[in-house]
UniProtKB/TrEMBL annotation:
<dbReference type="Pfam" id="PF01842">
    <property type="entry name" value="ACT"/>
</dbReference>
<dbReference type="InterPro" id="IPR045865">
    <property type="entry name" value="ACT-like_dom_sf"/>
</dbReference>
<feature type="domain" description="ACT">
    <location>
        <begin position="86"/>
        <end position="161"/>
    </location>
</feature>
<keyword id="KW-0677">Repeat</keyword>
<feature type="domain" description="ACT">
    <location>
        <begin position="393"/>
        <end position="470"/>
    </location>
</feature>
<feature type="domain" description="ACT">
    <location>
        <begin position="179"/>
        <end position="263"/>
    </location>
</feature>
<dbReference type="InterPro" id="IPR040217">
    <property type="entry name" value="ACR1-12"/>
</dbReference>
<dbReference type="GO" id="GO:0016597">
    <property type="term" value="F:amino acid binding"/>
</dbReference>
<protein>
    <recommendedName>
        <fullName>ACT domain-containing protein ACR</fullName>
    </recommendedName>
</protein>
<comment type="function">
    <text>Binds amino acids.</text>
</comment>
<dbReference type="InterPro" id="IPR002912">
    <property type="entry name" value="ACT_dom"/>
</dbReference>
Length: 496
């Protein structure tokens, strides 16, 4: 009898705990400025355009139960197609999964020539047709193994697999360094001034990504102490650096809102972070007085948004000049604008790409009003153009040393060259830098300037000059290499 009473008491206690832990229905906000009723509670809900879905606490073990029962399945197929590799991903659906998969593929510099996406309901099924940068199938065993691990069931548990180390923003992402985020008004020679400040304060630049768009510049710079080669945690020293960088970014303008500096503490993908910084800076509102306005018509994306009545989607169609990482830039922007991709079809026809996405806002709303459609079109167009670089790219390789970036950017400035985009990487003792340049007025660079540049720095570093495909049918290369340098070529060295 005592045992039965004890069991009943235990059951009652358990039921009481279960009643307490049952989550309340979510509060749902929509993105169209209307007032809606919650479909779960019937209560009126304010539709704040910037609001997010607010969910209560939920047991993470239970939340991941479906994923553990039905782990992701990844297939790398080199037999079905003669000219590309097929990567098939089947998985339980979860927020952001499409961006995660595309990010992993683009981080190792794979070109996505076709893709078919379906994630309507609880299941996510993708097929990607991919090649390497030279248009060949993926046959490298290490890269195939990486794809299977990163996208497979153990991808969330294997440290360092989910994100390529060179593409993370944060104090511990590439080693002992501090990541600095900078955004402000662009001008010729600005990158040279930024690197000079860092060199004067005895900070060594171990990596950097720099984008410019609509006369705005956003960059993430990885630095460490030039003496100890470790991250700098002295608040006084960091404060001095932050103030001097802000003064450089601000230039002659007194408004503090013109420029911002901050220290990144998270583990955000660096390309995604640059998109977020420029999006928050509203670079998509530029008024057609930028250098981009001089681009040929082939650079201008054609974006339309229609309503798919039978399924209740908004169909976003994008046609533009194809380039690497185009799909990542579009999916990244849609995700950060809180839109969910349910279906998509991607294809490349010669030099052009056609991409179609069937989306809804994360609250279930479609793009019904013209203002919302116009905003999405502007943001996608900005995302596509941020990575577009017409003209020349300069690829430099030299033994790393303190102040190297400052020296190189000073020489570029003295030769009248303006950097529109840059990637700086350090592997071991070698610094590998890629600069996309135009002249100070935004026009293509005269080759006489390049020859003068080669004579000045050729004795200290190897220089490769490459014309972008948009300006020439074949690359013009000379110096230490005849092929283009891609950061993905460092992938194997990161794994070892």
């Amino acid at each position: 009898m005592a045992t039965t009473v004890a069991k009943l008491s235990w059951v009652q206690s358990l039921l009481g705990e279960l009643r307490v832990s049952i989550p309340k229905p979510p509060v749902i906000h929509c993105d169209n400025g209307r007032e809606e009723k919650s479909i779960l509670t019937g209560e009126a809900v304010s539709c704040n355009p910037m609001a997010k879905v607010c969910w209560p606490y939920f047991d993470p073990e239970y939340e991941n139960l479906s994923m553990r029962i039905n782990p992701p399945r990844v297939s790398v197929d080199n037999l079905s197609c003669s000219d590309c590799t097929l990567i098939k991903v089947d998985s339980m659906n979860k927020p952001g999964i499409l961006l995660e998969v595309v990010q992993i593929l683009t981080d190792i510099d794979l070109l996505i020539t076709k893709a078919y996406i379906s994630s309507d309901g609880g299941w996510f099924m993708d097929v990607f047709h991919v090649t390497d940068q030279q248009g060949n199938k993926i046959t490298d065993g290490k890269i195939i193994d990486y794809i299977e691990k990163a996208l497979g069931p153990k991808g969330d548990t294997i440290d360092g697999v989910k994100t390529w180390p060179g593409k993370r923003v944060g104090v511990h992402s590439v080693g002992d360094h501090t990541a600095i985020e900078l955004i402000g008004k662009d001008r010729p020679g600005l990158l040279s001034e930024i690197s000079a400040v860092l060199a004067d304060l005895h900070f060594n630049v171990v990596g950097a990504e720099v984008w410019t768009h609509n006369r705005r510049i956003a960059c993430v710079v990885y630095v460490n102490d030039d003496a100890t080669c470790r991250a700098v945690d002295d608040p006084t020293r960091l404060s001095v650096m932050e103030e001097q960088l802000k003064n450089v970014l601000r230039g002659c303008e007194d408004d503090d809102k013109v420029a911002r500096t901050s220290f990144s503490m998270g583990f955000t993908h660096v390309d995604r972070r640059l998109h977020q910084m420029l999006f928050a800076d509203r670079d998509y509102e530029g008024g057609g007085t930028t250098i981009e306005a001089d681009y040929p018509p082939s650079f201008k994306p054609k974006i339309t948004i229609d309503r798919c009545e039978d399924k209740g989607y908004s169909a976003v169609s994008v046609m533009c000049k194809d380039r690497p990482k185009l799909m990542f830039d579009i999916v990244c922007t849609l995700t950060d604008m809180q839109y969910v991709v349910f279906h998509a079809s991607i294809s490349s026809d010669g030099p052009y790409a056609s991409q179609e996405y069937f989306i809804r806002h994360m609250d279930g709303c479609t793009l019904d009003n013209e203002g919302e459609k116009e905003r999405v079109i502007k943001c996608l167009e900005a995302a596509i153009r941020r990575r577009v670089s017409e003209g020349l790219s300069l690829e430099l390789c030299a033994k790393d040393r303190v102040g190297l970036l400052s020296e190189v950017t000073r020489v570029l400035r003295e030769h009248g060259l303006s950097v529109t985009r840059a990637g700086v990487s350090t592997v071991g003792e070698q610094a590998m830098n890629v600069f996309y340049v135009r002249d100070a007025s935004g026009k293509p660079v005269d080759m006489k300037t390049i020859e003068a540049l080669r004579k000045e720095i050729g004795h200290t570093m190897m220089l490769n000059v490459k014309k972008e495909p948009s300006s020439a049918k074949t690359p013009e290369a000379s110096g230490w290499a005849k092929t283009s340098f891609f950061f993905g070529s460092l992938f194997e060295r990161f794994l070892t």
